[in-house]
Design brief:
The complex is a heterodimer. In chain A, 0% of the residues lie in helices and 51% in strands. Chain A is mostly beta strands. The radius of gyration of chain A is 13 Å and the shape is globular. By secondary structure, chain B is mainly beta. Chain B has no helices and nine strands. Classes of the chains: A mainly beta, B mainly beta.
Chain lengths: 115, 112
């Protein structure tokens, strides 16, 4: 299957700082990328969907000014958590899909801890 | 509004077949049944998907009832490495309904 990578795999930051998470499709062109968040013992919650070259579409209740998503190329999407607070601590997972294909491939996730 | 219903947890002895059920009684004609699994602290892994015919690949088999209101994922010879949360998801292939929306899944514990 196709490979999706994320960087970093984990990050610890101080409250009030911003953190950028990268998601890359390594062997295919990801026309659509998705960002999910997962709190402990809970399921994945979709945060936003982005198509290459377009603005991201955010799910209800997700603050677009706090979670900045950029999908500037067919192999890279970034999620920036701005002014992070402890309640933003979570497991962030990206996913990518290639045009004309229906399988959606997931990255390994990034664990964010905000102190 | 959950579109699928799965048991919260299941146990299976190693080497035996694991049969994971899923109810999706409100599935639409253009929606597929997808199965993913998530091993602890990892991203979800695609397993299999189908529309109405039974499907089989190197990982598992998917049995979909004739009325498409339920399905069963079968891991023919479960191993300890199959311990994970298994998610049954229905989704269309186009439009806004093509998003993968995860429910609570079934936590499968494979034991010796």
């Amino acid at each position: 299957g196709a490979v999706v990578s994320q960087h970093p795999s984990w990050v610890i930051c101080k409250s009030g700082t911003s953190v950028k998470i990268e998601c890359r499709s390594l062997d295919f062109q990801a026309t659509t990328m998705f960002w999910y968040r997962q709190f402990p013992k809970q399921s994945l919650m979709l945060m936003a969907t982005s198509n290459e070259g377009s603005k991201a579409t955010y799910e209800q209740g997700v603050e677009k000014d706090k979670f900045l998503i950029n999908h500037a190329s067919l192999t890279l999407s970034t999620l920036t958590v701005t002014s992070a607070h402890p309640e933003d601590s979570s497991f962030y997972i990206c996913s990518a899909r290639e045009r004309d294909y229906n399988e959606q491939f997931f990255g390994p996730g990034t664990r964010l801890t905000v102190l | 509004d959950a579109k699928t219903t799965q048991p919260t947890s299941m146990d299976c002895a190693e080497g035996r077949a694991a049969n994971l059920p899923c109810n999706h009684s409100t599935i639409s004609g253009n929606e597929y049944v997808y199965w993913y699994r998530q091993i602890h602290s990892q991203g979800p892994q695609y397993i299999i998907h189908g529309l109405k015919n039974n499907e089989t690949n190197e990982m598992a088999s998917l049995i979909i009832t004739e009325d498409r209101k339920s399905s069963t994922l079968i891991l023919p010879h479960a191993t300890l490495r199959d311990t994970a949360v298994y998610y049954c998801i229905v989704r269309a292939h186009t439009g806004t309904a093509s998003k993968l929306t995860f429910g609570t899944g079934t936590r499968l514990q494979v034991t010796l």
